[in-house]
């Protein structure tokens, strides 16, 4: 194995599982997340010799992942999930458990439009700045702010008892 392949193999081994988590939050399906990560790393491998700054590799890879996710949604490769009926996530007499809250939030996140979901995941899961999120999404900081605000509004409407 040459140095190029070894470097890529090492990077894939150390970072692919983290990108799977991000991909899952973007698409809401583990199988599709695997496909997104696979497509992302195929694209990264093709550009591996042109990637100049290894310190910015995570940001570059994340950008490929988000673009791949948004492109697939734009082109209609995968259908968007929609909630089944008008289910109220509703009133609970006892405090919710953490696992239940997480499942409700993940379900609600899948119903948010793809660009808003990408903005939310990058800003709050990846803890990226507005500017870094804009770069990853190939858009402006203003668009990131509006997509994030709309996404949070959508989540609040779906999960009225949550505090985010």
From TrEMBL:
Record-linked SUPFAM superfamilies: Sigma2 domain of RNA polymerase sigma factors, Sigma3 and sigma4 domains of RNA polymerase sigma factors
Domain RNA polymerase sigma factor 70 region 4 type as annotated: residue spans: 104-155
Sections of the chain in a coiled coil: none
Biological processes per GO annotation: DNA-templated transcription initiation
Keywords: DNA-binding, Sigma factor, Transcription, Transcription regulation
GO MF, one annotated term: sigma factor activity
Domain called RNA polymerase sigma-70 region: residue spans: 20-75
Family (UniProt): Belongs to the sigma-70 factor family. ECF subfamily.
Protein name: RNA polymerase subunit sigma-24
Organism ancestry: Bacteria, Bacillati, Actinomycetota, Actinomycetes, Pseudonocardiales
